[in-house]
Amino acid sequence: MIHPLNNYKKDKRMNVDLIIQNIMNPPVLFFLLGMLAVFLKSELTIPQPLPKLFSLFLLISIGLHGGYELSKSGINMDVIKGLFLAILMATIVPIYSFFILRIKVDVYNAVAVAATFGSISAVTFITGVTYLQTIGVDYGGYMVAAMTLMESPAIIIGLVLAAIFARQDKEGEEKQKTDWGEILREAFLNPSVYLLMGALLIGIMTGEKGWHAMEPLFGDLFKGILAFFLLDMGLVAAKRIGDLKKLGFFLIGYAIVMPIANAALAMTLAYFFGLSKGDAFLLALLSASASYIAVPAAMRLSVPEANPSIYLPLSLAVTFPFNISLGIPLYYFLVSQLWG
């Protein structure tokens, strides 16, 4: 009979091995290298037009490949279940996050932080996909569509919460009218959503022939461009760490604990809905991630009362590094325990 202690030691060793394996992934090491450059006060910089080009490349690449995979699998019950769970998580996370944050934070900042953590990070997703490819675990191409669908709901829900719960700062002051047309335009036509959805549709329409034509650029160079992008993200994240001194333990703790809780809820739902191991991992990772591009831009435009020095450092300097280094192997380990 195998002693339970032996199983515990084996699981613990597996978890440590997964963490080491993820950290030793070259793109992740480049992220850590970028952070280290700031800490050591190196003059390393990446010219500003290039990071935007890198992000556009990654979005097109993941969209095209996801569309190609979706064209192979078609729309089946597994795809429908996965997309439903993605929309469900993107809807409920910003709602319960808002009420948790209201314990310590005012309405406007609670809205901004809840929306930020209710949306997703495409780069975190891409790093997770790379991790699955490295360890040889399959996943459905439709998860790219799931990622796209999860980006916008948090913006809309955040602005609805702001409209419902915001109060007049001064007696007699008129409330600012909500421009729902602008809100919807910002939510569904922001550049990352637009490009991802467009690339996904192109991948579906062109199928295998289209992907093989584009693969030398958007397939073979993918990990190299990801390494460049994460190097720049390491530089940016490290520069934001100084802002954390103003936030307090509650918000910093939230930025670590809430992603784990969101991931646990997502993988539990995925288990009961019968998603595959790889798809459950990616759904959990998406649910655990936080936006640092689309939602902060939308909040700055639509909720100017919220303080960007609160919601942006939480996402970029706490949750993003945590997910990239420790979160990915942790979520995969938890999924492995459920799926066996």
Description:
- By secondary structure, the chain is mostly helical.
- 79% of the residues lie in helices and 0% in strands.
- The chain has 15 helices and no strands.
- Helix 8 packs antiparallel against helix 9, helix 12 packs antiparallel against helix 13 and helix 12 runs parallel beside helix 15.
- The radius of gyration is 20 Å and the shape is globular.
Short description:
With 340 residues, the protein is mainly alpha-helical. The chain is 79% helix and 0% strand. Helix 1 crosses helix 15, helix 5 (107-118) runs antiparallel to helix 8 and helix 11 crosses helix 15 (308-339).
Topology overview:
Layout: H1 4-23, H2 26-39, H3 49-73, H4 77-101, H5 107-118, H6 122-135, H7 143-151, H8 153-165, H9 180-189, H10 191-218, H11 222-240, H12 248-273, H13 277-288, H14 294-302, H15 308-339
Helix pairs in contact: 1-15, 2-11, 3-10, 3-11, 4-5, 4-7, 4-8, 4-12, 4-13, 5-8, 5-15, 6-13, 6-15, 7-10, 7-13, 8-9, 11-15, 12-13, 12-15, 13-15
Give the SSE order as H and E letters: HHHHHHHHHHHHHHH
Poorly predicted ranges (pLDDT <50, ≥5 residues)?
Answer: 168-173
> If helices are DSSP runs of H or I spanning 4 or more residues, what is the number of helices?
15
Number of strands: 0
Mean pLDDT score: 82
Strand content: under 5%
Name the structural class. Answer: mainly alpha
Distance between the termini: 19 Å
Main sheet properties: none
Form type: globular
Fraction of helical residues: over 70%
